[in-house]
Amino acid sequence: xxxxxxxxxxxxxxxxxxxxxxxxxxxxxxxxxxxxxxxxxxxxxxxxxxxxxxxxxxxxxxxxxxxxxxxxxxxxxxxxxxxxxxxxxxxxxxxxxxxxxxxxxxxxxxxxxxxxxxxxxxxxxxxxxxxxxxxxxxxxxxxxxxxxxxxxxxxxxxxxxxxxxxxxxxxxxxxxxxxxxxxxxxxxxxxxxxxxxxxxxxxxxxxxxxxxxxxxxxxxxxxxxxxxxxxxxxxxxxxxxxxxxxxxxxxxxxxxxxxxxxxxxxxxxxxxxxxx
Length: 276
What we know:
By secondary structure, the protein is α/β, with parallel strands linked by helices.
């Protein structure tokens, strides 16, 4: 494991993927917040009162346009969609997380052809499309400046390999990096993709799926929170405590060292990188 020591006077350990939360949880971090380690206490104190603004930039394809109920009010739909995603993050504190609508783009047919990989009628290959979307975004610096996360909204059925029930895919901890992208399925009228969007934003911010390593036993997928692959209980609109802690320690440690508040997530990350 690698370590760094800025602000906090103890040793900070990260696992091989640079994940602080995984190390802390394996060492017995209290999920209910009681008896926190000295590192946790320092982090919570340093992050108190700070707000992280995560800007979403939506790309929309033709299949989404065809399903959109009120096409002249697409902006209003996206604003409401973003607010619905934000509601899923309301329990995250120290720092608080605000999901904001930063930009949108209707893809042309040429852009769609460049980005989307359609497997068969009505089905979109999520992983291959994700790769092409990342490459497309990398070639548009203005998009990178405007957003922390880029979400492709599609009316097609998003698949992950042979799994056609996922509704969305993204890169783990990809926010603010060249892999700040996600693909989400939505119908443009019932907000059916809100949970999938919240799931992918959380994944980009450092939350793994419940029931997977390194926290497979602490928060099993059967509990049905947002980060379960198929959330189907009354908890489906909430994050498990494992997800909350993983996100908090993935972005919170760095944000806590940025003196100004509020801070845009990627701007704050950039200032951290400039210091080192």
